[in-house]
Amino acid sequence: MTGFRILITTMLLLPLVVAAQAPPVRVVDARTGVAVAFAHVKATETGAKTAKYYLSDDDGMIRHNLVRPTVFQVSYVGYQTFSDTLFPGGEAIIRLLPEVFSLDELVVTAQYNPGSADRSLYRVNVINQLQLRRTAATDLSGLLRNQMNVRFTQDASLGTGMSLQGLSGEHVKILVDGVPVIGRLNGSIDLSQVNLQNARQVEIIEGPMSVIYGSNALAGVVNIISGDIPGKSLTANAGTYLESVGIVNFDGGFSLNRGINAFSLQAGRNFFAGFSPADEGRAKLWKPRRQINADAGYNLTLKKAVLKAKLSYFDELLLVRGNLLPPYFEKAFDNYFTTSRLTARADITTRGPNPFTASNSLSFYSRVRTLYYNDLTIPEKTPTEYDTTGFGSFLSRAMYTYRSESGLIGIQSGYDANVEWATGERTGNQHHQTTDIAGFATMQIQPADLISLQPGLRYAWNSHFASPLIYAMHVKAGPAKGFMFRTSYSSGFRAPSLKELYLYFVDVNHNITGNPNLSPERSKHLQLQASHRIEKVTYATETEARFFLNDIDNQITLAETGDGAYTYFNLDRSRSMGYVFSLRSSLYPLFDLRLGWGRTGKSNQLTPGEGLRLYWSPELTSEVTCRMDPIDLHMTAIYKYTGRTTRIYMDANGLLSEGFMDSWHNMDLTVLKTFMQKRLSVNAGVRNLFDVTNIVSAGGSGGVHSGGGGNVPVAWGRTYFLKLSYTFVKNDPAKKN
């Protein structure tokens, strides 16, 4: 009887003994086999309603008591997130692929389903989280400044605009999680107003995306992908950025995850004291500014759908100080420009192989100018002039994606409805509105293992202009023996924006008048791309060649009309053409290299019947990183050469003419080091090593900034920076073992 009791007791306790002695899972680097310590692990057993959380130890071990099939999600800075089901008795090793090594980053912009860049029919340039940390960029202008095929237009008051494939301003669509950023001045979004505080990665698609995203996407799309709310109970972060030119930034936030509910809040304050290459008294060439931004988010995760709501707010104060007035030089006129942007959005995405997504957003933008008479002897300032301009936008967008079980056919169809309006003194105290409603559809066809086709159509109704049928065809061949080919041909249409039609923008530095007689742009686009990759155990390289051609009728451009005044005109015809050769290489874990060289040619038909003559501008980029993984130290050098570019102005006879802006060089040096199990990151370095400030501009008065003379400001010279960021993670004790 005693033996029988022992047997029964053993059988009852055996599962507990086995559980207590469940073999640990080890996390290692997929390339070197080195253990990855302090990786974050979320483990969900089959049938369990809650997850358990772990940290790998110094040897990369996850010591657990799980005995059923379990989904392990493992994340660690610098590695791609691992997600797979591990079975008892199976291989107990999780191999994390280094983020910098992979040539197949996960992309979401314009995709049927999130997938690797290698599978996309579009050529997507992904700036991943590790690259974001290396550059220490705080806004979109700092991040894209050294990117290949991206050019900048710089205004010391209006901020930074960009061009892509030789097309700028209204041709480039800036998105945050797929929602357009509103508030263009001089045709461009000020990239210094687009912060990267919560960015997970930035995706750039070069070439026309008019079928999917409509107007403002002829040159391409820049989409900032925000980080998901972490699967932890509590995450908090704080950071600061200091630069010797007079920049002082602070930011912080937290996220809270409670079952199916998750909340997040991020906020920051940026300050720039202003700068002039020479002492110009109170009036600074680069105007002082103060920025405040905040984002609040809520996620509800259900069995069949995920609902997301987000509220984003931005506020900027730009100070344009005037020179002291004679005879006593104790009084001055100062302009205060207050810019605010508020965006509320709500999204729903269904789960499953054929997802449905819907997004609705409401955005408000205002720019208020107040002119003060400032008596410095009291001191007291008295408002003398006041004007405001307001813009708003409502966007409703939905898509349904279907893919056959074989994966050979996929269909994506949807609609978007966009209503924009403008009011205020700078639009003649009148309310102007434009509505654009469109339906679009694309089909992915795979007639053979290595061939994929994607035709697409878009039909839109515009309240001001007749819109033609927009079409596109994308073809991908490969990969075969490391080779990949992509080509696309598409049409485009862009109606003039409300700013181009009606905005009247005049201050001490600008005089821009809208033109209500503008015609819409129509265009054709061609792209070719070929690449080859070699990927070994510790070495990978990818070489690529690209060619593009953009042919636009009635391109809308800003041209000088004399005495520093500008207005918008239609060029009879404009063409941009270019080619790019690039190399990405990694010798893991020691060395990363990116090289790019290309030329962009632009031609403008200023009068009917005139021939098109291409003016070529070269470009060179390089990015070299030396890695010391045992001490987690990265040293990066980034260089870019921007060749001479063309600009349009109106000569003394009232005729459109072409001028040039000189070439220039930029180089940044950065060092990234982490401490405290990668919770604390420290960046330090030098920006604009060659100390470039202004470049020569031939023709006109030097740019929209009428005070520039024959020089155009492009940077504020050599500076030194320091960036600190700290992340704190706390798991719910109830979820721990």
The count of strands amounts to 47
Mean of the pLDDT scores?
83
Radius of gyration: 28 Å
Helix content class: under 10%
Assign an overall shape. Answer: globular
Sheet with the most strands?
Answer: 22 strands, antiparallel, barrel
- The secondary-structure class comes to mainly beta
Question: What is the beta-strand fraction?
Answer: over 45%
- The helix count comes to 5
Terminal CA distance reads: 37 Å
Task: List unreliable stretches of 5+ residues.
Answer: 10-21, 701-709, 733-737
What would you note in describing this structure?
This protein has 737 residues and is mainly β. It contains five helices and 47 strands. The strands form eight sheets. It has a 22-stranded antiparallel barrel. The chain has a five-stranded mixed sheet with strand order 10-16-17-14-15. Strands 3-2-5-6 form a four-stranded antiparallel sheet, with no helix packed on it. A hairpin with a 3-residue loop joins strand 21 (289-301) and strand 22 (305-320). It is globular. Mean pLDDT is 83; it is low at 10-21, 701-709 and 733-737.
